[in-house]
Automatic annotation (TrEMBL):
This is DUF1801 domain-containing protein. It comes from the Bacteria. The lineage of its organism: Bacteria, Bacillati, Actinomycetota, Actinomycetes, Pseudonocardiales. SUPFAM superfamilies: YdhG-like (SSF159888). Residues 18-33 have a biased composition (Basic and acidic residues). Residues 1-14 have a biased composition (Polar residues). Residues 1-37 are annotated as: Disordered.
Length: 152
């Protein structure tokens, strides 16, 4: 997707542009309507989007990018809240999650994986969580690769 100079100028530190943020808010409102009709998955996604929207600036920008990366690279994972923070599950079991540093009163946020993630490469040592303060292009690519590996 290409952006105009105006759209690029409204992008928040690697997060969503104002136009994308408005679309997320609109989608969250749509999902809240579904909640009343018993759509558990839609309600869970609405809860995650609402939680992300309520995060403070830097954490919100990172959480928005994480959400976009996970949903694009592992569409089979269902967004849900886990310990009050965004997480992504397969068959009800959390595979990966985001923890807001500000919410945890830490100097950095965390993106992590549970034992449900397929990250064991046989070496006896593999990552289970990462400290995140911002997502550079390289970090976004690395995160996308890890998410794909986690669900493979």
């Amino acid at each position: 997707m290409s952006s105009t100079p105006d759209e690029a100028a409204t992008t928040n530190a690697g997060g969503f542009s104002e136009q994308e943020r408005a679309a997320v808010q609109e989608r969250a409102a749509e999902l809240k309507k579904v909640r009343g009709r018993g759509g558990k998955a839609a309600a869970d996604e609405a809860d995650v989007l609402s939680k992300i929207e309520r995060m403070e600036g830097p954490d919100r920008a990172v959480a928005e990018r994480v959400h976009a990366i996970v949903t694009a690279n592992a569409p089979e994972l269902a967004p849900k809240l886990w310990y009050g923070q965004p997480a992504y599950a397969r068959k009800g079991k959390v595979v990966c999650f985001f923890r807001s540093g500000r919410a945890d009163k830490e100097r950095y946020s965390t993106f992590g994986f549970t034992p449900e993630a397929g990250l064991d490469d046989g070496s006896g040592l593999w990552p289970t969580s990462y400290a995140v303060t911002e997502l550079s292009e390289q970090a976004q690519e690395s995160l996308a690769a890890l998410v794909r590996q986690a669900v493979s």
